[in-house]
Design goal:
10 helices, five-stranded mixed beta sheet, Beta-Lactamase, 473 residues, 54% helix
């Protein structure tokens, strides 16, 4: 059952119960008020009849010392026809509770008569046939006789009014429930509209339309729920796009890795088969073995760099306090004797916080890339400066440069701007990918400024951090 129908159904049930209970108590309250009034009037009539009977008895001639039964009958007949209306009946009984006079239609039940005492006035409500009466009883003492007077006042009209009241209230209740049901139907539709919109949005997202958003039509709790749902959908869509990009990057990585493995392996297998299958002169034998060695070293470098990337991605490193002189002197030792290029190392003293071997690997990769992008005899600068935001490292070359549209891609694994040039210099496109992973671990990133045909300036910044005496942050 739809939620709107549940709201409608429970509203009708509650309203029906409320109308029924209130109608019952209201009609019964009116009925009881009317009955109290009728009982009061019946008791007043009983008192008036008692007084009238006593007055009539005192006006009897004095020749009778005792009130005669015939006189009592005559007084009773006069009282019944005394102009008090046809709705009143009376009955007179003597001391022995024997009937002396009774109006036509008076009940024959004498159990009520037995309950009358000399000092009390009692009443009850009875049904006789299809009529209802208030029956009263009282004792009359006059001329040395004790008589019992009973009256019956017709109150059928009060019961008829109650019946009509219930009938009218039932019709009114049905009409009110019908009109309320129509109104509540539209109200429930309006109240549950945000839920329907959320349900539709959820269904659309389940079908794969992650860009679909639920329309917010109110500012209440349901509106806030819709807003939160859309925020969740935004986060979900962003995570899905991120996962798709990561999955695409992994597929590209696997494809590129397979391709990079295929090229050296094909050469290694081919030259190895050549050495195995035929005799070669010394020069060809050396060239074949050298090609196998070169391609093997290229695979080894690729494997080590991939391993370094995996290690840095996992964050399995220990940081410590580093004097930058150690890094730059290491680079000076590595490249200071290089006669093919003019390598200049200049730096300012300073202290950074990081993992020295990984940072050495970053600098070595940057210098190697600068060498690959330069022609023999060109200048390559390795620099370091302390600034307000941290220690700046950069390597500047004056070689081929990098096209602007390629700058954002060069940190992807196996991506090479000039594949033929990189492979000819034993490159696999993993150097800058490793640098990016290492620098991310150091809360930094690669900064690239390059002009095609004029050279490149590639560097990074290690941010300043508080370092205690134990080398911990």
């Amino acid at each position: 059952m739809k939620f709107s129908y549940k709201i409608l159904m429970w509203t009708i049930i509650i309203m029906a119960a409320a109308f029924g209970a209130s109608g019952y108590f209201f009609v019964n309250y009116v009925f009881e008020t009317s009955m109290d009034r009728e009982v009061g009037q019946a008791m007043d009539d009983s008192s008036i009849l008692q007084f009238a009977f006593e007055t009539a008895a005192l006006n009897i001639p004095s020749k009778y010392d005792v009130l005669q039964d015939s006189t009592i009958e005559e007084i009773g007949s006069n009282l019944e026809n005394g102009g008090h209306g046809p709705g009143r009946l009376l009955r007179l009984s003597d001391e022995e509770r024997k009937l002396l006079y009774a109006s036509e239609g008076f009940t024959e039940d004498t159990s009520f008569l037995e309950q009358i005492d000399a000092d009390t006035r009692i009443y009850r409500v009875i049904q006789s046939g299809e009529r209802y009466y208030v029956q009263t009883g009282t004792a009359i003492t006059t001329l040395d006789r004790v008589l019992y007077l009973e009256t019956m006042k017709d109150v059928t009209q009060v019961f008829e009014e109650r019946r009509r009241g219930f009938a009218v209230y039932r019709h009114v209740t049905c009409l009110m429930l019908l009109s309320s049901s129509v109104v509540m139907f539209f109200i429930s539709i309006l109240l549950t509209k945000p839920i329907r919109l959320l349900t539709h949005a959820t269904r659309k997202m389940a079908e794969g339309d992650y860009s679909y958003r639920a329309k917010q039509i109110s500012n209440d709790e349901m509106g806030r729920l819709t807003c939160d749902f859309n925020l969740m959908a935004n986060a979900l869509e962003e995570n899905i796009h991120k996962l798709e990009e990561e999955n695409r990057a992994k597929e590209d990585f696997i494809a590129a890795f397979s391709h990079e493995l295929k090229t050296p392996l094909t050469a290694i297998i081919g030259y190895a088969d050549l050495l195995r299958s035929r005799k070669l002169d010394e020069e060809k034998h050396f060239l074949s073995a050298n090609y196998i060695y070169t391609e093997g070293k290229r695979l080894e470098t690729m494997a080590f760099r991939l391993l370094d990337i995996i290690v840095t991605k996992r964050g399995e490193v220990a940081f410590s306090e580093i004097w930058v002189e150690e890094l730059f002197e290491y680079l000076r030792e590595m490249y200071g004797q290089n006669e093919e290029f003019e390598i200049i190392v200049s730096y300012e003293k300073g202290i950074i916080y990081g993992e020295i071997n990984l940072l050495k690997s970053v600098m070595l990769n940057l210098v190697d890339n600068a060498i690959k992008a330069s022609e023999p005899g060109m200048k390559i600068e390795i620099c370091g400066r302390q600034k307000e935001d941290g220690y700046h490292f950069w390597v500047r070359d004056y070689g081929v440069g990098i096209p602007t549209e390629e700058c954002k891609k060069i940190t992807e694994a196996f991506y090479m701007v000039d594949k033929s040039r990189s492979r000819s210099k034993n490159g696999a496109g993993l150097g800058l990918a490793l640098c990016a992973a290492v620098l991310e671990l150091h809360e930094s990133r690669i900064l690239i400024e390059s002009t095609l045909g004029e050279g490149s300036d590639i560097g990074f910044v290690i941010p300043n951090k508080e370092v205690n005496t134990h080398g911990q942050e």
